[in-house]
Amino acid sequence: MDERRSSLRLRPAVVRTSNGDLHHLDLVVDGISIQTTMGHEGATTLNRVWMPSAWSPVDVFRGRAVDDLAGPGRLSLLTCSICADLECGALTAALHIGPDQVAWSDFRWVTGYDDDLLLSQLPSPVRFDRAAYERELDQAAVVLETLPAKLLRPPRQRWWRR
Question: Which domain holds residue 87?
Answer without folding.
Answer: 8-161
